[in-house]
Amino acid sequence: MISSVIVYLFLDFVATAEGYSYHAILKGVNNAVSLIDHVSDVAELPLCAKLCEKKECVSFAYTQAQKSCKTYSKRHSLSNNPSNDGYTYFQKKADGENTTFARLAPIFIFNDRVWTVVQRRFNGNISFDNDWNAYKNGFGDPLGEFWIGLELMHQLTASGPHSLLVLVESWKGVRKYAQYDNFELAPETDNYRLNVTGYSGTAGDCLNKKNHNHMQFSTKDKDNDLTHNSCADAFKSGFWFASCSSCNINGPWKPDTGINDRWAVVWYTYDNRFRPMKKAMMMMSCL
């Protein structure tokens, strides 16, 4: 069951919770010399964020496993060799700051686990009919609709075991989820081939049942699907297409008119029909 914090975040599609606005650093190391305090027995991430607010710090680190919170007076460093101490590092996004996908991303709480948001749809303001380089490097705005980038997702899964979470919501406001305990993306030399196992959830195992799993990624200028034509070109989006679109959360955003429509944001196993979804989020979390 999705907790109340998750529902609040999912309904609003923002990267904030209970008054704070922090972003996870995907490739971060702590600025140890600016440590303000180290508090143990902190039950959950939002409480650690509140400690940071009270101390007027600018960054913090949290580990759910140890329920440990560290607060800092300076921003964390960015590195190609991120810390391996079990902490996830967060920092405030400064007013007017341009977000860099490889450095910052919204975070999401699902059943007391921290997830990094890597894709989000909710209003159709961003076109997902983009070329290979855009899908490789990322596009959009993390505070709105966006795609974080295949290369970064590959680097993260290559650095250690990760899980995948997909949340979808119908135009009637009914939310469902699909979680895959194991999530990997191959390097670009294998066109970011998808590998997921260990499904659980309420939205159905669309990636396996509709043959998207183990497929290479396709875009309108790089066709890697199994058909004679280009699924990416036909469905105006990039995805791990096999014989085109059955669970394509990157499809064109449009209302649900009650008629089957594959040319939309769809997750077929939601209710075994091509129902356009109003909202979708794709997230990953380190095991």
| Sheet having the most strands | 8 strands, antiparallel
Structural class: alpha+beta
Radius of gyration: 19 Å
- Termini, distance in Å? 20 Å
Q: In which range does the helix fraction lie? A: 10-25%
Strand fraction band?
25-35%
Tell me, what's the shape?
A: elongated
In DSSP terms (H or I, runs of 4 or more residues), the helix count works out at 6
- Runs in which pLDDT lies below 50 for 5 or more consecutive residues are 1-20, 98-103
Report on the structure:
With about 290 residues, the protein is of the alpha+beta class. Helices cover about 15% and strands about 30% of the residues. It contains 6 helices and 16 strands. The protein has helices spanning about 5-10, 45-55, 130-135, 150-160, 205-210, 230-235; strands at about 20-25, 30, 35-40, 60-65, 70, 75-80, 90, 105, 105-110, 115-120, 140, 145, 160-170, 175-185, 195-200, 280-285. The strands form 3 sheets. Strands 9, 10, 11, 12, 13, 14, 15 and 16 form an 8-stranded antiparallel beta sheet that branches. The chain has a 6-stranded antiparallel beta sheet with strand order 3-5-4-7-1-8, covered by helices on one side. A two-stranded antiparallel ribbon has the order 2-6. A hairpin with a 5-residue loop joins strand 11 (about 140) and strand 12. It is elongated, with a radius of gyration of 19 Å. It starts with a helix and ends with a strand.
Summarize this structure as a short list of keywords or feature phrases.
alpha+beta; 6 helices; 29% strand; six-stranded antiparallel sheet; 15% helix; 287 residues; disordered N terminus; single chain
